[in-house]
Amino acid sequence: MHNAYFHFAAPQNEPVLNYAPGSPERAALKKQLAAFKAAPADIPMYIGGKEVRTGKTVDIRPPHEIKHKLGHFHMGDASHVQTAIDAALAAQAQWAATPWEQRAAIFLRAAELIATKYRYHMNAATMLGQSKNAYQAEIDSACELIDFLRFNVHYLGEIYKQQPYSPAGIHNRTEYRPLEGFVLAVTPFNFTAIGGNLPTAPAMCGNVVVWKPANTQVFAASMFMQILLEAGLPDGVINLVYAEGPVLGDVCFAHRHFAGIHFTGSTGVFQQMWKTIGGNIDKYRSYPRIVGETGGKDFVVAHASAPVDVVVTALARGAFEYQGQKCSAASRAYLPDSMADEVLEKLKATLGTMKMGTVEDFGNFINAVIDERSFDKISAYIAQAKKDPKVKIIAGGNYSKTDGYFIEPTVIHTTDPKYRTMCEEIFGPVLTVYTYKADQFEETLQLVDSTSDYALTGSILATDRYAIELATRKLVNSAGNFYINDKPTGAVVGQQPFGGARASGTNDKAGSMLNLYRWLNARTIKETMVPPVDYRYAFLRADDDV
Ligand SMILES: NC(=O)c1ccc[n+]([C@@H]2O[C@H](COP(=O)([O-])OP(=O)(O)OC[C@H]3O[C@@H](n4cnc5c(N)ncnc54)[C@H](O)[C@@H]3O)[C@@H](O)[C@H]2O)c1
Ligand SMILES: N[C@@H](CCC=O)C(=O)O
Q1: Is residue 248 lining ligand 1, measured as CB closer than 6 Å?
Q2: Any coiled-coil ranges, and where (predicted)?
Q3: Has this prediction a pTM greater than 0.95?
């Protein structure tokens, strides 16, 4: 029963706690880290609201301390994916019919639970499972996830309010239905907040969801699933399964009721999914919505007018926070010859102060990369660079996987602007720098635009307003998130809607109205108050009819 219009006011961003020495949040987080390490977790799938254990377990180990076992999760197979789809479809009608304000309350309650009761659980799980330091976990698994939930509730309310014009005698209205079928959410390892947003954004819109996180993010993902259930999410609305990607794809993409994919991950995986969906197009009841945010090769262009310390800091933070494992991370930089030597010298000195190690030692800025596969891939780029005459490693370059997957923040200098580490996504702590002639700024912008297939994020650092204007114009299609005098990372929900174009994705801007529209299927309703009773137009009528 709806006897009122319900309004969800625009929220404020969740304040970021700083975990300074002596702060209560630091003590609480350390306590939670110790608790997780002391009690290995047995993590089930959640299908139709039930915990499902298969006995086929996969160990979870902190990437920075691989000898320690945090617990294990139960791996599923094709039958569990099928059961998850069945559970979702069984929940569909009742969930779609649930009044919006009742659905919204569940997600607002989940946000509140994370902000209060479970903040340190979420952060500690992310720190240990994904090797993030306390600050990087706080901005991800607490603040960004809370913001996604609260802002999406507000945005969806704003969408529902949008109604067409009705002239006299007619009432026009638009109803924002969920999609017919289930939505598949496939999420990456690097952001707990993305893991949470991808299933909840469609679910909030009244859709039912099958959610598969990356194996290396299951520890925090399962914690969020428990919070959703505690917040009152009905059984079957979101079903959390762990399965090999191709197994998942085989079942979901061949299903008649597959209604859409909400994906974040690498470009290659997304393109393969799109091809499979295209090949199966005649199987589906409706055209599936395909939303994917993927890889990046994000740039920083410094103009000769930029202050050196601004450039050094933007590169140090932009390239190396969370070991460069952000799709937005600065991974290619263009420095004018007027300042390149000074910037590189100061950058090397800055990186020398960054301590690397476990997440429990809060003095460490750098932790480990996510897993052995990633370690091997990143270190192979560095090993190759050491041999290549076109490039020189000017900082870092060492790595070890004895205790954890540690790679030093590494800076490569190249004389070839199309060297492979200027073009390919490495997804690790590796920055490649090219020096350009300061009087060739405009030509360099052309180079930036044409060097990589990606177009996710990028920065221009300058004080000269003409340079800023030129870069903004010339790089109009080079990045979906463009930063002036800032690093290219750290988008905040509600402030900088996030996503890129070209090979970087469909640019549906997570955490914004643009994204929510993709999970809605509008129905237009026209109601005529006094219907006509004669088919003839006035000019067809005989004079004696008038
Ligand atoms: N643009 C963005 O907003 C954004 C944000 C975060 C990460 N990323 C990108 O994500 C990548 C890093 O994350 P990752 O290593 O977890 O990515 P990934 O592509 O390896 O995995 C992403 C998800 O896809 C699943 N998957 C892998 N192969 C599959 C298959 N064949 N079928 C179905 N599912 C499959 C994985 O298990 C995981 O859940 C980087 O390329 C990064 O740029 C992009
Ligand atoms: N939204 C995050 C990046 C997400 C990708 O990994 C940022 O803006 O840094």
Answers
A1: yes
A2: none
A3: yes
